[in-house]
Amino acid sequence: MELGYWLGRGVDAFREWASTYGEFATHTSMAVDDAACAVAFEELTARLRGSYPFFHPCYAGQMLKPPHPVAVAGYAAAMLVNSNNHALDGGPATSAMEEEVVERLAEMAGFTAHLGHLTSSGTQANLEALFVARESRPGTAVAVSAEAHYTHARMCHLLGVPVHTVPVDARGRMDLGELDRLLSTGVVGTVVVTTGTTALGAVDPLHRVVPLARRYGVRVHADAAYGGFFRLLADGETGGETGGRADGRADGQRAPLAPETAAALRAIAQCDSVAIDPHKHGLQPYGCGAVLFGDPDVARFFRHDSPYTYFTSRRPHLGEISLECSRSGAAAAALWLTLKLLPLTPDGLGAVLAAGRRAAVRWSELIGASPFLEPYQPPELDIVTYYPASPGSSPPRLSRVGLASEEVMHRGMNAKEDPVFLSVARVTADAFTARHADAVADADDTHVLRSVLMKPESELHLERLHQRVEQLAKASWPAPRRRGR
Hints:
Number of helices: 14
Structural class: alpha/beta
Helix content: 25-40%
């Protein structure tokens, strides 16, 4: 789609609507000089060029990508109205859109009943879920995995709730035996399960955690901020094929989710709450998160009075079921428009996720066959972790792996020609040797390279990306590894 055209359509539609209320004079205090505006705007756009190219498949670093042009057009059109979805009189049109998109998200999650709303971020969504957890199980602690996002410990500290960390297995997933032992003590009231950890994209075995937690009368919250939209792929192979053609659909290869991963994502439906971020895999601009509760009666924990706010409708205002107050209605409009065109189906938005998943699986295969790169662990979703291979047949030394990984990242992002943007993740010596028993643990921890292939264009750019990273890795060691050790 031509973004400039649709942005113009949005401006025209706003002006047409505004004209129905009659002419009025704008205040002189709001005037800006056109020439001064041109200078300032030129400076703004010049400074924005200092950003990393999140839009390009050469950027394969953090969880960053541009919103879909449809979302940009929808956001801009609604931003001109500047509605506030806290109260219905602050955003009557966009509040209705928010209710509709939350209904779609709840259907994707598998909730038969729900209470929920959009948030400004996944952090806020998790805060609200942990707040309800505290109110539902007062005096109890929250259990999170060692690979869970740091926001849970921070939000629990804010809420005054104790946190217990559960060790993970050799794939970065919550250890069920350790969780069972912790739950048997009776101190935990809520378990936070991550479906897509930030560092590795690991999916905790939610389908096994839920029955275990229920046995002890413990609530379950799914932090699906990153991996939640992969629920669209959890019912079978979807999203087309991959291959060598320019359209990425040539040889019939597919990359379905592993059965355990798919089962875990389907189990979101059995959770008490879930956080999910449309500004990640939902193609939305920042900030657009969401929190859903399976029991609508948790609205009682949010109940409060505002005699100057909630007076225009007997229908619940969104601010009456959330901790946030002012919140952009444009985020709801952008997501609403996006889901009209790319619905929450395997062949809609699911096809976008499937492309990234195929790219991750294919790249892991290429890395495994490379004399210059070594997989850290296979991808569960669309995050690939790897490191420069040791020279010759020598085992990897953690101190050198970390230095080589950081060198590849910095050389790639600072290259004047053909740059590539990667990221690194810090892993402990125990985690590394659990995956690579021959490693020499001469450091307490190390860094491995990490690439998030959440843009579908990564699938079409993969061979070039792999060759470029191989070049960088080759330069970081004096000699390539010899296969067959």
